[in-house]
Hints:
Layout: E1 4-7, H1 13-21, E2 26-30, H2 42-51, E3 57-62, H3 67-77, E4 81-84, H4 93-99, E5 104-110, H5 114-123, E6 129-133, H6 153-162, E7 167-169, H7 178-185, E8 189-192, E9 197-198, E10 201-202, H8 204-214
Helix pairs in contact: 3-4, 5-6
Amino acid sequence: MRIRIKICCIKSIEEAKTAIQFGADAIGLVAKMPSGPGPIPDELIKLISKSVPPLIGTFLLTSETSAGEIIKHHYRTGTNTIQIVDLLSHGTYSQIKEALPYVKIVQVIHVMDSGSVDLAIKLSESVDALLLDSGNPNLKIKELGGTGRVHDWTLSRQIRDNSKCPVILAGGLKPENVRQAIEEVQPFAIDVCSGVRTNGLLDKEKLGSFVKNALK
Length: 216
């Protein structure tokens, strides 16, 4: 089975078309965040997600932490997948699934230490996929993704080997290291934001190299 590719931080219908043209299986649409690149208004997320062909994943990146607010956020945007970038503080995944039975739930795990591994394995029983990133939710201004940093892939591999659901690898991936990352972690999918951008804009040359190296 070939590796799946998600291109994140999509900011326009044109960027979505470009990402899909180059082979993206999914796109990431970043809503309001405490920090990091690429947030766009909910109205634009809805427009972009409606423009995308069927069978392409449209991921709403939400920083909401209660099940009720996450459900409301989805109603405003209409994506087919919800990427929860922080941990739930109120409510349960079951509540979200009951309200949105046709929407996939992806939980972000910020891979920092062995505690991240234990948390990931526990949560993998309740969601459709885990996304392993390099943020730090413990900072005063939370870092919830888009850092451009690589984390310890040996920890990601431990999660991948013990997870009850598919694993998506993110965090500092770029054309130069994506093949090594795939070989070391063996994820179901990979996710990239800044690694295929120049001055914040989607770079077709970098995007082409990234996809080519990922699919070697």
